[in-house]
Amino acid sequence: MTKQQIKIPLSVPENKKNEYNKNYRSLTNNSGHLLLIAGDQKVEHLNADFVGTGIDPEDRTPEHLFKIAATSHGGVLATHLGFISRYGHEYRSIPYLVKMNGKTNLGNNELKNSSKTWWSVNDIIKFKKDSGLNIVGVGYTLYLGGQFEAEMLVAASQMVYQAHQAGLTAIIWVYPRGFKVKEDDIKIIAGGAGVAAATDADFIKIKYPYNLKDKPGTAKKFTEAIEAAGRTQVVCVGGSKRPVKLLLEDLEKQIKISGTSGLAMGRNLHQRSLEEASKLTASLGAIIFHNKSASEAYKIYSPKTLLKPKSKSKFLGLF
Q: Which residues are catalytic?
């Protein structure tokens, strides 16, 4: 893995460039690419995605997310500050991204205003100093097309600017929402990517139309979203839980055909046991950080090559 040349945005002051450089490299495992472990689903999806048929019992408690991140191979845990505060004592090696806003899935989502952040960037800076944890950045979910779009654009842009002023990185989740909005339309997704890039975010997380049958064709069309984002890097959502082989094949197409810079994964990861999730992050990392093919990555995950947790050092040596 070669070091990525970082082009620091002009919104980062001269005296914060070293801090930003350090945080960006930690965010991207020193590669410029991102494996984002989405822990904000504890708020967004409530408990439906953590308990039920096909979900490993280990997923019942928030600590499962921290265990996965700690055994991941270059992953960053994105979650709300309260969880980081409660579990960070035992998981100091994890790079953290603090999710700054959120809403539950109860009631009519179209009527909810989740534009306000739960904390200020200054609060995060203080928490980072007081806790000594590796807080590398902040994140915000932006919904386009709804009645609170204007407020969310202001909050997202201000968060990114304040983060950069402090030498932190910033990621925007951007989803088209609203009356008669086609959320899986690539042109609309690409438009959202362009809007998120206008906030000066370092990475944006967007939807991907996994349901379309022509996989190579979809990946090629999806270049529109990457081009629309310009110099802001793009990662796609992981979607609902599906077979690992298919998941890895989709990721390879996203990176090598579409031109994305990694993946953000929630349900597809945390609904598995710690052992299985750890092997999955190793497989994902092989593609994201080491430019391996889906077939090479699947060999790492495959039961024929699964290793016991005590053999972790040997597992890492596969790279």
A: 175, 205
CA distance 270 to 60: 10
Q: Copy the structure tokens of residue 100.
A: 């700054």
CA gap 103, 90 in Å, rounded: 27
Query: Which residues constitute the domain of residue 175?
Result: 14-316
Q: Which residue has the tokens 């992981």?
A: 238
Q: What is the pLDDT of residue 31?
A: 95
Residues of the chain with pLDDT under 50: 1-2, 305-319
Collapsing DSSP to helix, strand or coil, 170 comes out as strand
- Counting the structural domains of the chain, the total is 1
126 in any annotated domain:
yes
Q: Is residue 206 part of a domain?
A: yes
The answer, as to whether pTM is greater than 0.70, is: yes
| CATH number of the domain to which 211 belongs | 3.20.20.70
Answer whether residue 109 is part of any domain.
yes
What pLDDT, on the 0 to 100 scale, is given for residue 319? 34
62 CB contacts (<8 Å, ≥6 apart)?
39, 42, 83, 86, 87
Cα–Cα separations (whole angstroms), residue 234 to 168, 227, 299: 18, 10, 26
Q: Is residue 290 part of a domain?
A: yes
Residues in contact with 75: Cβ distance below 8 Å, sequence separation at least 6, in sequence order: 29, 35, 36, 37, 68, 69, 281, 285
Residues 139, 229, 175, CA angle at the centre, nearest 5°? 50
- Report the chain's C-alpha Rg in angstroms: 18
